[in-house]
Amino acid sequence: MNSHPIVKPIVIALGVLVALFIVGKFLAPKDPPPAPEATPIAQASPGAAGAKASDADGPKAKLGPKAVTTASGLKYEDLKVGTGKEAKDGLSVEVHYTGWLTNGTKFDSSKDHGDSYKLTLPGQVITGWNEGIPGMKEGGTRKLVIPAALGYGDQGQGEIPPGATLVFEIELLKVN
């Protein structure tokens, strides 16, 4: 019996495919790789659900080894410790501030307006400020890294996108 000349190569190719399939079954890993664990930033910033993990890691969000992280996820570092009166709830304070997104984009600065900013603690400002200014002393400068939940949350504000982590440098000029 004469078979068609193309049948023999097809049978060989099918045999090779079956052999590769069988070998692949025995050599393939039995369990899928584990899912990556959550980053410490995602765990430490409960309010940053709307922000991307990379958002909190931007260049402006970098803090030194003496930085403090609060239970709410606020991070701060005293760049200069003041020597005057201490800011406390119920007192009025006067500050200079500059605010950035974590990628370094400046969105506001009292210095650009040519005047300091006056407020009474707490209130009148975002939660991150209410938590981050008390404890400062006149003449001091503090860097705040504020998760979205302590800033403008998922709605954003003006140039600040929804879910943004904010970075502020606050200079405490006066406590009344």
From TrEMBL:
Chain intervals for the UniProt region annotation (Disordered): 34-65
Comp. bias regions, Low complexity: 38-53
Transmembrane segments: 6-28
InterPro entries xrefs: PPIase_dom_sf, PPIase_FKBP_dom
GO terms assigned for molecular function: peptidyl-prolyl cis-trans isomerase activity
Enzyme Commission identifier(s): 5.2.1.8
SUPFAM superfamilies per the UniProt record, alphabetical: FKBP-like (SSF54534)
Chain segments annotated as coiled-coil in the UniProt record: none
Keywords: Isomerase, Membrane, Rotamase, Transmembrane, Transmembrane helix
Catalytic activity annotation: [protein]-peptidylproline (omega=180) = [protein]-peptidylproline (omega=0)
Family note: Belongs to the FKBP-type PPIase family.
Protein name, per record: Peptidyl-prolyl cis-trans isomerase
Source organism of this protein record: Armatimonas rosea
